[in-house]
Amino acid sequence: MRIALVILLGGCYRSTGQPAPITNKTDAAPQAALTMSSRGVGPITSTTKVTLTDLRAILVGYEVRPLHDGSLQYDIYQSGEKLAYVVPDDQSGYVFNVHAVSSRVAISGHPWRVGRAFGNASHLTNCECWGSNPTCYASGEHIAVNFGRQCSDLTGVDRSALRALDGEIVQRVIWSPTAFGEAEE
Hints:
Blueprint: H1 2-12, E1 34-37, E2 40-41, H2 52-58, E3 63-68, E4 72-78, E5 81-88, E6 95-100, E7 105-107, E8 126-130, E9 133-137, E10 143-147, H3 159-162, E11 170-175
Parallel strand pairs: 1-7
Antiparallel strand pairs: 1-2, 3-4, 4-5, 5-6, 6-11, 8-9, 9-10, 10-11
């Protein structure tokens, strides 16, 4: 009888040391390196003085590098990846705007991410050509989106033309301390 009980119990034994099955599914989305909101980008706000020293002081854990390429900007890196760059206002010394160039920068209040397909054209009210690419926004907001395509028929407020942006890949997302579509005071 004992032998039968041992065999019976032995047949029910399962090792708990088995590794979990391999899967390509992740439990959570990767954590954002920075978050852009209507108030700023991470610790950068409208009152941030844009100097190398000041940016390095508030961007602890990031590498900040100046770049002179016709004008001055400060590139923000984390773990070797360029996340964004800050453009100073030449007259005031504060932030003119911040450009997110990595999908690791989360955008609060919008589903926009750099490198991903855009699908929110009905929210936009206007586009402007910045160089040869359209930068589009909802008037009165502090966040705009830029696309790696030609401006062609996208400048102005033609709502039907803006629908052509759905499905386009987001090249950059831009934060400005001055709301887009409004004149500076």
